[in-house]
Amino acid sequence: MKWWQNIPFFLVWVPLLCASLTAVLPCKASQALILLFPALGTVLSGVLYLHVSGNMAFYTFPMGLFGAPFGNELRYGTVEAIMAGTFCLVLFLSLLGGWKRLQEHIAPERKKLYCVMVMLLLSSMMAEVFTNDMFTAYVFIEITTIAACALIVARTRGRTLFAATQYMIFNMLGSGLYLLGISVLYCMTGHLLMVPMHEKIEAMMASGEHLQSLTLSVTLMTIGLGIKSALYPFHRWLPDAYEKCTPSSSAMLSSLISKTYLFLYIKILVRVVGLQHMNALDLRPVLVLCAFGSILMGSIDALLEKKMRRMIADSSVAQIGYIYLGIAVGTEAGIAAALFHIIAHALAKSLLFLSGDRLIGASDEDADFHELCGAGFRAPFSGAAFTVGALSITGIPLLAGFASKLYLSQACLTMPSRWAFAGLIVLAISTALTASYFLITVITIYRTPVHAYHAPVHHPWYSTAALLILAGLLVVVGVCGSSLYTSILSGIPYLI
Amino acid sequence: MTKKKNKAWDWLVDGSQALDDTMIQEYAEGESSETPSVFSRPHPRESGYYERFHTWSHDRGARLMKVLYAVMVVCICVGISALLIATTSDMPQFGDAKPVEDDALSAFYVEEGYLHTGAPNIVTSIILDFRGFDTLGESHVLFIAVCTVMMLLYIPRRDDPEHLREWLASEADDRATEPHNDLILQQGAKLIVPMVMIFGIYILLNGHLSPGGGFSGGTVLGAGMILYLLSFGFQKTERFFNIHTFRRVSTAALMFYALSKGYIFFTGANRIPNGIGTGQFGAILSGGLLLPLSIAVGLVVACTMYVLYTLFRKGDL
B108 contacts in A (CB within 8 Å)? Predict the structure, then answer.
């Protein structure tokens, strides 16, 4: 085993080891650690990507002396390296971009606990990205869920307690359904590791036995992970949860936590069930309809919102709909488009939450839209960053959102003609709706102010730098989108 | 039209008038059906429509939604239950060996597992050795759960008057419900607690030999500590267990666990000999790292149980 093949193990293990340490270290040291580890994780994932991208292969890392099928295992290839790098980078930039607000919003005795949560979140995300085992995924989903609740309640203000309780109830239901799905699958296959499970499923599909149980377990897992990633019609917990917590938490919740569940779902469909069986299990119509519902209802909800952060939160539902649409296409191109959209959305949504909060900070707290007039002049960097994020989500060329929508619509065309046609129409309607609510916001922040405001909050230079890096990444991904897409597409056969 | 409605009507027509406090009160207590919201002065016909729709949506509409909600809940629950029950008939029979007969997984665990781990208890060797990564995650689930509860409920002892008042209030509230030196409880606890603790330690230490292990032993130990706290009060327990003890014990246990599992994972994957023997089969000091790992898990579980109890009881240890 070469030295770089150990990188995924260290990405999972070191944050887990240091999570309990952050509870006893001094506060400053804990805070330094939660900035250091995601940054290191990004670099290490980059190194891993450089090593795996050339060779058309996947690698396994047995957790212990006994590999599959006797013990746990990590497994990785190009796609996993790209996703791990993206998640680490977005985590780092979200923390850095909201650093000042984080210090203001969180009571001193909670700061260390917040660090514990971030550390365990990092470890559990990496475990979900790299694991090759259904039950390990479940254990780390639990950690992610509890960490997410804590990230919401870390700032106890207004409706955060209510939002966190709602989030917890919905997400526990989701975890429960996922666990039920695994146990049904385990009953039939006798395995928990993904690859041996897939072999048994292949045999079952060939003989046509237990098709009903298989459909049920896949449905349960789809609903479970759908609830957790806010798929329509299970999305009602989302705006409350994302609105009132500190901006770094909102950015993490929307661009990391729901995305790890989505990546896990993609892995289950591709590696365990097999894309070629999606039709036999009647999965496509359900996924397509839920995706359409998400896209349309998310956009309409966002259009009706009066508060900026709720609007950004609601637009997440629509974006998650796009990702499910890519999954529902069920081809390698569709999955690649979905993964590309995960990356584009993770970058854009964290940027929007961070810069949007700074724009609100430059106006009155809890302000309606018309209070934001002129915020772009009062906080010029945040205004520019918000504009870039909004344009990217809308899908303006040269930005990441355009590339991802292009690949999605290309993938849509490979579906049967009815679905393809419907998909393109929904994409068009939703683009128009997204443009209307995001561009109105952009115009609002550059209008003449309605009255005088207090001096805007001063943010440190590194937070502004984090926002500009995120905006720059959106441009880079938008311009060089094709090479990233090709790289993901070439890695999909080794995700199987 | 009742008096309440008249009041709402007046307010609705004359929008400049500030909202009546009593109306907000009534709305909050669910007595009034009017929503206190702010409108500019409406056109009379418009406010007539508003009145009609508004009373409907708060009156009959709300009742209709309640009924619909109840019907939907029952339908969905019954439907899902029926679906799950119907599917069990499609699943392999209980005790059916067919799904597992043609692969070596169970056979390996049962027939050869002890050769590799040196432990007669197959369950412990699976959860702490073969699938040790899951259990490592699981013990961190306990840790993160305590941290979250601590974030919500822990009342810090700080010098500023507001926190001090809150802390004193929680102390006083706790004293109010606690049985003060109940003689029967204390004499009973004096008899039972040592036995519970020794039994817990026995389960913990014999986890790799007989049924038991970290999770069950830790639960017994935690229950023993809670019983002691219930009968003798916080003054006695604070002498040996406070928030710092908890932090140190659980951090040490978790870090030992993570470090030793990390060592095993790393050496195992890289095919480096790890130098840990299995010892004599069936002896108390055997099974490689299983015994220390059981103790670590047990400490985490016991601390978690005790701390969750005290945090929910008065927000402090």
Answer: 70
